[in-house]
Amino acid sequence: MPTSSVRVSGGASMSSSPCSLAIDELRESCRAATTALYLPSDGGPIGVRVPLLDRTIQLRHTDVVKILPVDSPVSGVLAGQDGSTRRSIVRLLLESPSITAVDIGRSLDLSAAGVRRHLDALVEGGDAEANPAAAWQHAGRGRPAKRYRLTGAGRAKLEHSYDDLAAAAMRQLREIGGEEAVRTFARRRIDTILAGVARAESDDHGAVEAAAEDVADALTQAGYATTTTRVGGPIQGIQICQHHCPVSHVAEEFPELCEAEQAAISDVLGTHVQRLSTIVNGDCACTTHVPLNLIPFSDLTPSARDEQGATL
Questions:
Q1: Strands 237-242 and 226-231, how do they pair?
Q2: 3-class state of residue 200 by DSSP
Q3: Are the beta carbons of 215 and 271 closer than 8 angstroms?
Q4: Residue 163: in which H helix or E strand, if any?
Q5: Angle between helix 112-124 and helix 83-95 axes, rounded to 10 deg
Q6: Which residues, 6 or more positions from 204, have their beta carbon under 8 angstroms from its beta carbon?
C-alpha cells in the first residue's frame, strides 16, 4: 500500500502510519455521510467540515461554549428579555465553583435584588442550585449567604451540538484503527489547540507560571473557559481550572481525550502535573495542579515519576 508524507511539529516529514490512514479514511467517510445534509438548493459547490477531525480553525473557536444571543431560538437558561444580564450571570456561575448573589452583583454592578431575580429563575428552571455556605466561607455575623452554582442540566445547555456525531466518529475510528488510533487522534487534537504556546523556557517558577497562563489562554480560545490560580500550602503550585469542557460527553466514553490533555500540558510546562478533578467525574471543573517545588519531570526516572505522582 502506498504511503504518504505528513508534516509534524518542527517541520520534519514522516511516512503515514496505519493510524494516520485510519483517521484520513474516517474523515472522508464522515464527510461523505454528512454531505447530503448540507446540499445547497442551487446545486453549487459545498464545503462540509467533520467536527473534531478536520484540522481547521474549528478546533480553536469559542462558539462551543454557547452563550447564545438574545434572539436565539433556544429557550431556558440563556433566553428571555434580560438575556444579556442572564448570560453574564451564567458565565460567572460557570467560572466559579460557587458564588453568592452579593459577589455577582459586585462583579456586574447590579443590585442584589436584580441578581436574585435571575438566580431564582435559574433555580426554578433547574439550571442552578443554591447551597448554604460552608463554615469556612462565612465571615461576620448573621445567617450565611447562599452560594450558587450551575447544575448538570444547566451545564448541558452550554454543550455544543456535535456530541452524537463526534462520539459516533470516535467509535468508528476505534473500529478502523484500534485504541492506538484513538490515542493518536486525541493527542493531535490537543497539540493543535496548544500549537501557539511556547514551552516553558526553564524550570524557574516565573517561567512555568507564564507558560501555564498561555496554556489557559489557548484552552479558553478553544472553548474551555480556563483560569489559573496560584496556591500555597505544603506543595505550592498553580492550578489550571477548565470551567467548561466542550467534549465532556464524548470524554465520558473516551478518556483518552483527558489523558492526552494532561500529557500535553505536562510537556509544554516541562514538569509533572496532576489532575485533581474532572467535569466528566461530576466535578464543577477540570483542575490540573502544577507543582512549583518539585524536580523537573524530564529529569526523573520512570519509577521516580510514578512515586512523585503518588504524593500529590
A1: antiparallel
A2: coil
A3: no
A4: helix 163-193
A5: 80
A6: none
DSSP tag of 114:
H
Helix (H, G, I), strand (E, B) or coil at 30: helix
d(CA 50, CA 162): 10
What does the alpha-carbon distance between residue 240 and residue 195 come to, in Å, rounded to a whole number?
18
Residue 183, all three cell numbers: 490515542
Q: How far apart are the first and last CA of the chain?
A: 47
Answer whether 163's CB lies under 8 Å from 249's CB.
yes
pLDDT band with cut points at 50, 70 and 90 for residue 12: very low
Q: Which residue type does 126 have? A: G
Q: Which domains does the chain have, with CATH numbers?
A: 83-156 (1.10.10.10), 200-310 (no CATH)
CA proximity to 170, closest of 264, 278, 50? 50
pTM of the model: 0.54
Whether 120 contacts 135, CB under 8 Å: no
Distance CA 163, CA 2 (A): 34
Give the H or E element holding residue 207.
helix 205-221
Most confident range (mean pLDDT) of 59-73, 162-176, 238-252 is 238-252
